[in-house]
Write a structure and sequence with these properties.
This protein has 182 residues and is mostly helical. It contains six helices and two strands. The longest helix has 30 residues. Keywords: Membrane, Transmembrane, Transmembrane helix.
């Protein structure tokens, strides 16, 4: 619960400050009802990602709320992983380095261009990709799961919801076995 409280507090504080600064910089909330396809990259834009060819029919305000919610879920999933690693290693620095490796290896694979086969799945379904929510909505990408096509954002969040649920159960079991009874 401490991890969740910390993550939610820091996340919401940073997003509140970021939102206020963006609204101040761009002169208010005008344009929030425009489609996301109007957000394009460029020197005059605040986004480095272009949504010109996005298949999703969100308005900017809907997209903003979806991104906030999914980024919060991604941060919670990463926090759960770090909590498990911290418990297993009992050493703060070792947990820090292992967490860094878990986050960095998929990025390294993508930078090296190793995105075929199983390594491609490791790169596409990683905590780092999970946290880059806004890039998931730039173009259409689907995976065939048991003969059913699933959109990439839906699939990655489903996979990490299951993984996080298993990790929470594992953390609970490990803490339960460690408790001292009188």
């Amino acid at each position: 619960m401490a991890v969740l409280t910390y993550i939610v507090t820091v996340f919401l504080s940073l997003q509140l400050v970021n939102s206020i600064l963006k609204m101040w910089k761009f002169g208010g909330a005008a344009g929030w009802d425009a489609p996301i396809q109007g957000i394009s990259s460029g020197l005059d834009s605040f986004s480095f990602i272009s949504y010109d060819r996005s298949p999703y029919s969100f308005e900017v305000w809907q997209f903003f709320l979806i991104i906030l919610g999914l980024q919060l879920l991604a941060c919670i999933a990463a926090g759960i992983l770090v909590s498990l690693l911290s418990f297993l290693t009992k050493n703060t620095m070792l947990a820090f380095f292992i967490s860094g490796v878990v986050m960095a290896v998929p990025v390294l694979l993508q930078q090296l261009g190793v995105t075929r086969g199983i390594l491609g799945y490791v790169a596409n379904f990683s905590y780092t990709e999970l946290m880059q929510v806004s890039s998931m909505f730039t173009y259409f990408r689907a995976y065939n799961v048991f003969g059913i096509p699933l959109l990439y954002p839906t699939l990655i969040f489903t996979v990490f919801a299951i993984v996080s649920g298993v990790l929470v159960f594992l953390i609970y079991q490990l803490f339960r076995k460690q408790q001292v009874s009188s």
